[in-house]
Amino acid sequence: MAATWHYFKWSFIVTVVGLGLTLWLGWAYTGTLAGTMGFFLIGAILAVLEISLSFDNAIVNANKLKDMTPVWQRRFLTWGILIAVFGMRIVFPLLIVVVAASIGPWEAIRLAATQPDEYARIIGDAHLSIAAFGGAFLMMVALNFFMAEGKDVHWIAALERQVAKFASIRGIEVAIVLAVVLIFASILPDQYLATFLYSSIAGLVTFLAVEVVGHVLDASQQATDVAVKGGLGAFLYLEVLDASFSFDGVIGAFALTQNLFLIAIGLGIGAMYVRSMTIMLVEKQTLAQFRYLEHGAFWSILILSVIMFCQTITHIPEIITGLLGAAFIGVSLWSSIRFNRAAAAVL
């Protein structure tokens, strides 16, 4: 118990400070006890929503971090989390408004503070682009895992084993994502088609670009210093991955509140728990202890990517996204425990 507290100490501190700020923000905006408690409740819900949507993110981060040097691990868990919290939870929503409304950053902040309805409307208008980009990127992430050559551990064996057979086919993951894009493009109204196709292809190209840049950077670094293998390239990959995971949380938050500052507080609290979980998974080597936990995370990512594509056509409540992800991870954890018990019984 004491060891667990060590990992989540700063998350608990940020939670107390953050929820305190929601009370102050609620009183500043409403001046009533009911309004203040409403802000507090929404902030708490946003934090829980972010944790439930991002637990698979922590598992994937831990999987990548375990192969990085301690120096780059520390850089990601310090600078990387700052980018994730402030970049994706605050700067990214502002940037959407800056581009969509053709206004300056300070004007966007003023709009968020004084005209939250208009701010939320602009964010909502960008939802199609964000969902298409994130769906394509995350689907590539998931397929890249299931179709990795040499993958010999399978959780949903009947399906995963069949999928793994196609790993040797060059470009199969790209072909599958493009096929999914074409299916949704055939359903969307014509006025949304160009935006959807452009954003989907951008998500696909971004994944491929990050993969290429990562390999080039890491190969270059390895040539000069073996100790920094898995450094800058892996760092960039994780940053883009974190950004993609944040899309649904940021957009989904506007279903609960249109206040940018309340969203930043709630999602920031959740992001700190993701950081704590990532550190714990790496240091305690939890992924090695639970055989199928990583599989559950990537199934969760695949489901999330499909949901993001579906959201280009219809609204899907964020609670469904969170529960599905949590369910896959929970069942994979249970399967891992059963496997460990069976292996121990044999010994």
TrEMBL record:
User: What is the top-level taxon of the source organism?
Assistant: Bacteria
Question: Pfam families, alphabetically?
Answer: DUF475 (PF04332)
Q: Does the keyword Cytoplasm apply?
A: no
Specify whether Repressor is a keyword of the entry: no
Lineage, broadest ranks: Bacteria, Pseudomonadati, Pseudomonadota, Alphaproteobacteria, Rhodobacterales
Task: Kindly give the InterPro entries that the UniProt entry links to this protein.
Answer: DUF475
Return the protein name.
DUF475 domain-containing protein
Sequence intervals crossing the membrane: 7-27, 33-55, 76-106, 126-146, 167-187, 193-214, 226-245, 251-274, 295-314, 320-337
Q: Which UniProt keywords apply?
A: Membrane, Transmembrane, Transmembrane helix
